[in-house]
Amino acid sequence: MTKTSSLSDKTALRDEVVPRRVRQFGSARDGLREWRLQRLTAIALIPLSVYFAVSILSLATSDRKTAADWLSLPVPALLVILVVLAGITHALIGVRSVILDYVHTRARLLAAELLFRAVAVILAGAGVLAVLKLFLGH
Amino acid sequence: MERPLSPFMFPIWYRFQITSALSILHRLTGIALAIGSILLVWWLITVATGGELFATTHAFLASPIGLVLLFGWSVAFFYHLCNGVRHLAWDAGYGLEIRGASRSGYAVLAATVLLTAMTWLCVFLA
């Protein structure tokens, strides 16, 4: 088979004609799942984070008991758990994309990945436990 | 074969463009919010445990340093939220022309100022 550029090498995407075959290495082959999860958590965080921000704002000048009572209700407890999980997932993907751009040594990259993943898991676990304690405590 | 690196488009080495400046700001505010998530979880823990821990945390947050941090995080939050919506619109294929992208950029800045001002007015007038 000769490698001449023919019509079948191109495909129409929207209004442009783009190459059907990738040049050189092509993509890194993974990353799409993470890209999607970043967008999915972003969309989820629009209502969730606004709900959380408004709630915090009304709790800002109140005491601990008001906050504890609020988190013992099922809807706030569930939504705050979702804020923590979606927020930390979104943050981890974002921070990972930053370290991938600026950390170029394999060993350092691995160390940074492990560190940030561990911090994310601990934060998510601690946040969920704290809300569950308040919710189940009543 | 080396993979291409993305250029570091900081305005000192690169001509200022509202789009690249806001892109850098999106990352910076994202990092600030990631750090802020530690405080968020810490606050949840102190509400759950109560006592001295909550009182100390509350006193710190109400101090001048605490308020400056909270103000910074509120700016970062509103900016990242508004600019995130702009990014989602791009992902859906809208607003990618240069004129539209810079206009929506200025709209994001205006919305950030407005939302931050409204939030802190609520805090101090409540």
UniProtKB/TrEMBL annotation, chain A:
Q: Where can this protein be found?
A: Membrane
Q: Name one Pfam family in it.
A: Sdh_cyt
Q: How does it sit in the membrane?
A: Multi-pass membrane protein
Q: Which CDD domains match?
A: SQR_TypeC_SdhD_like
Stored InterPro entries:
SQR/QFR_C/D, Succ_DH_anchor, SuccDH_FuR_B_TM-su
GO MF annotations in UniProt: heme binding; metal ion binding
Residue ranges of the TM segments: 40-61, 73-93, 114-136
> Can you cite an annotated GO cellular component?
membrane
The metabolic or biological pathway listed in the UniProt record of this protein is:
Carbohydrate metabolism; tricarboxylic acid cycle
Tell me the keywords, alphabetical order. Electron transport, Heme, Iron, Membrane, Metal-binding, Transmembrane, Transmembrane helix, Transport, Tricarboxylic acid cycle
Needed cofactors, names only, are: heme
* GO biological process terms, semicolon-separated: tricarboxylic acid cycle
Q: Does the keyword Ribonucleoprotein apply?
A: no
Quote the subunit structure annotation. Part of an enzyme complex containing four subunits: a flavoprotein, an iron-sulfur protein, plus two membrane-anchoring proteins, SdhC and SdhD.
Function summary: Membrane-anchoring subunit of succinate dehydrogenase (SDH).
Name-wise, this protein is: Succinate dehydrogenase hydrophobic membrane anchor subunit
UniProtKB/TrEMBL annotation, chain B:
- SUPFAM superfamilies, per the entry: Fumarate reductase respiratory complex transmembrane subunits
Q: Major place of localization?
A: membrane
Key words, A-Z:
Heme, Iron, Membrane, Metal-binding, Transmembrane, Transmembrane helix
The record gives the membrane topology as: Multi-pass membrane protein
Q: Where are the transmembrane segments?
A: 21-45, 65-85, 106-125
A GO cellular component annotation here is:
membrane
Q: Which GO terms describe its biological process?
A: tricarboxylic acid cycle
UniProt cross-references to Pfam families, sorted A to Z: Sdh_cyt
- Family matches, as CDD domains: SQR_TypeC_SdhC (cd03499)
Q: Superkingdom of the source? A: Bacteria
Q: Which GO terms describe its molecular function?
A: electron transfer activity; metal ion binding
Annotated residues for binding of heme: H80
Q: So which cofactors does this thing need? A: heme
Transmembrane among keywords: yes
Q: Where in the cell is it found?
A: Membrane
What does this protein's record comment on cofactor binding? The heme is bound between the two transmembrane subunits.
- What is the protein's quaternary organization? Part of an enzyme complex containing four subunits: a flavoprotein, an iron-sulfur protein, plus two membrane-anchoring proteins, SdhC and SdhD. The complex can form homotrimers.
Give the protein's biological function.
Answer: Membrane-anchoring subunit of succinate dehydrogenase (SDH).
As for family, the record states: Belongs to the cytochrome b560 family.
Q: What is this protein called?
A: Succinate dehydrogenase cytochrome b556 subunit
| Name of the gene encoding the protein in the UniProt record | sdhC
